[in-house]
């Protein structure tokens, strides 16, 4: 069984579970929408710095909704000890991580399909004016966040304090991704030249690579019982 | 005949020790099982039986010693060794939101089973769940879940089946069904290792019996040499009163 094939089987199963239960996307979208509303009321977005608040608000909403998504993803495996059954299978164990990460990434993108349009309406700022560059920022930022969040979810799944520990461990580690993503989105909304913030794209790619390689190296040790 | 003699043992455990911090769960256990043997492991709670099964399955690495399945080291996560093992636990290893068929298909694909749909359909018929194959398993009774668990463990046709207290929570009817299935697997010359607390059941089903206390084997004998009536007394003598 190939690495990609087994990762896809696991991702497909996780997405099937979510389509049945609709637990993750529903709660994370609802939570994100509340965050956007609070931001919308809390800040004066007509202010000259309004675009910075808009970019920040968008990414905080994505981050909070993502934290919920990651936390839930390994709980499916905890019920009935399904993780043990997957670990028994003759597949590369890091493909389990990549399968779950791919599912989380897809679910987060699905949530963002709601979050971004609502942000545009509430913040009254066209976040997607430079469409493809913003899409690239969303994809890279979400990838980095999902990579860390999925790893932390695997680490904390057997802990009683996982709900608290998950965000506590994830947020400091993904801070560089968050900062780079906000800088890019701000630059795009403000209409800056690409040269002015391309370094943040490069930083985002570098962080994504690091955050994908580390789990690939440590996941097997992490799930050993 | 020569070929049969040179075949490696189905399960070979050599001086396995497993420590969790200061606790020694498995303490220098060695065991060789030939193909077709049915080993029953008895022992009080906390004797290290489940840990031993997890080591055999490759879910836990021993602190020292080695475990081999059909001659291949399981702790190296050897794909062939893992393909030879099926595990049935008191946990069902199934996803409640998925149907019985979807659960089996998921594991069949993960094991790279050829023609997974036909294989899963056949297994569901074997365990008497074909009529409910498209219902979410969260609506299943404990007995049905355990039958599904058997089908899941057999989906890749393993030669060795590890069973950790498979009778837990089953009613009389479900327990009889499980016993019938275990006898069939024994007749198919699969190697079986079963942990149970039911002395009578374990002796009746097994071909060999071991008693594990405080991480060590204190009794290892053919099942046919055991007098079922006297075994309870022997068990309590070996286990010692400190456990009760």
How would you describe the overall organization of this protein?
The complex is a heterodimer of chains A (225) and B (244). Helix content of chain A is 84%, strand content 0%. Chain A has one domain. Chain A has helices at residues 3-21, 23-42, 50-73, 75-78, 82-88, 93-123, 131-156, 162-190, 194-223. In chain A, 49% of the residues are buried. The longest helix of chain A is centred in the middle third of the chain and has 31 residues, at 93-123. Chain A starts with a helix and ends with a helix. Chain A contains nine helices and no strands. Chain B has nine helices and ten strands. Chain B has two domains: 8-84 and 158-243, P-loop containing nucleotide triphosphate hydrolases (Rossmann fold), CATH 3.40.50; 96-157. In chain B, α4 (100-110) crosses α5 (116-126), α5 (116-126) packs across α6 and α6 (142-154) runs parallel beside α7 (172-187). In chain B, the strands form two sheets. Chain B has a six-stranded mixed β-sheet with strand order 6-7-8-3-9-10, sandwiched between helices. Chain B is α/β, with parallel strands linked by helices and 244 residues long. The mean pLDDT of chain B is 88. Chain A binds chain B through residues 1, 6, 9-10, 13, 16-17, 20-21, 76, 79-82, 84-91, 93, 220, 224-225, and chain B through 54, 57-61, 77, 79-80, 82-83, 85, 87, 89, 91-98, 102, 106-107, 109-112, 136, 152.
Write the layout of secondary structure elements.
The complex is a heterodimer of chains A (225) and B (244).
Chain A: H1 3-21, H2 23-42, H3 50-73, H4 75-78, H5 82-88, H6 93-123, H7 131-156, H8 162-190, H9 194-223
Helix pairs in contact in A: 1-6, 2-3, 2-6, 3-6, 3-7, 3-8, 6-7, 6-9, 7-8, 7-9, 8-9
Chain B: H1 2-6, E1 11-20, E2 23-33, E3 38-42, H2 49-57, E4 64-69, E5 72-73, H3 79-83, E6 85-88, H4 100-110, H5 116-126, H6 142-154, E7 160-164, H7 172-187, E8 191-195, H8 199-205, E9 208-213, E10 216-222, H9 228-239
Helix pairs in contact in B: 4-5, 5-6, 6-7
């Amino acid at each position: 069984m190939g690495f990609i094939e087994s990762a896809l089987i696991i991702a497909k199963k996780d997405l099937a579970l979510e389509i049945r239960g609709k637990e993750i996307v529903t709660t994370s979208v609802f939570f994100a929408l509340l965050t956007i509303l609070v931001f919308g009321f809390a800040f004066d977005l007509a202010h000259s710095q309004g675009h910075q608040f808009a970019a920040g608000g968008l990414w905080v909403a994505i981050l909070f909704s993502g934290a919920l998504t990651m936390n839930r993803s390994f709980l499916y495996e905890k019920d009935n000890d399904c993780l043990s059954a997957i670990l028994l299978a003759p597949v590369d164990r890091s493909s389990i991580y990549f399968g779950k990460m791919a599912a989380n990434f897809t679910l987060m993108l699905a949530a963002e399909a709601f979050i971004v349009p609502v942000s545009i309406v509430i913040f009254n700022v066209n976040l997607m004016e430079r469409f493809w560059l913003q899409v690239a920022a969303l994809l890279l930022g979400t990838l980095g966040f999902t990579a860390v969040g999925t790893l932390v979810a695997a680490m904390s799944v057997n802990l009683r304090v996982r709900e608290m520990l998950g965000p506590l461990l994830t947020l400091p580690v993904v801070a560089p991704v968050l900062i780079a993503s906000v800088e890019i989105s701000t630059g795009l909304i403000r209409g800056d030249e690409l040269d002015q913030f391309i370094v943040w794209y490069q930083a985002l790619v570098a962080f994504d690579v690091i955050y994908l390689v580390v789990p690939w190296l440590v996941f097997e040790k992490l799930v050993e019982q | 005949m020569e070929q049969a003699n040179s075949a490696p043992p189905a399960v070979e455990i050599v001086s396995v020790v497993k420590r969790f911090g200061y606790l020694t769960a498995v303490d220098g256990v060695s065991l060789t099982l030939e193909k077709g043997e049915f080993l029953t492991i008895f022992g009080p709670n906390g004797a290290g039986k489940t840990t031993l099964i997890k080591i055999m399955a490759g879910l836990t690495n021993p602190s020292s010693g080695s475990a081999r399945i059909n001659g291949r080291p399981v702790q190296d996560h050897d794909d062939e060794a893992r393909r030879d093992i099926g595990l049935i636990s008191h946990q069902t290893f199934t996803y409640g939101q998925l149907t019985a068929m979807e659960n089996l298909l998921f594991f069949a694909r993960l094991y790279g089973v050829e023609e997974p749909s036909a294989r899963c359909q056949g297994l569901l018929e074997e365990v008497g769940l074909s009529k409910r194959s498209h219902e979410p398993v969260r609506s299943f009774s404990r007995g049905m879940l355990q039958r599904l668990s058997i089908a899941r463990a057999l989906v890749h046709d393993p030669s060795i089946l590890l069973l950790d207290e498979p009778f837990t929570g089953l009613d009389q009817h479900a327990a009889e069904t499980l016993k019938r299935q275990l006898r069939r697997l024994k007749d198919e010359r699969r190697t079986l290792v079963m942990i149970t607390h039911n002395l009578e059941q374990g002796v009746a089903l097994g071909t060999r019996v071991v008693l594990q206390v405080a991480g060590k084997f204190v009794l290892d004998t053919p099942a046919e040499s055991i007098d079922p009536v006297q075994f309870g007394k022997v068990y309590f003598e070996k286990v010692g009163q400190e456990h009760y």
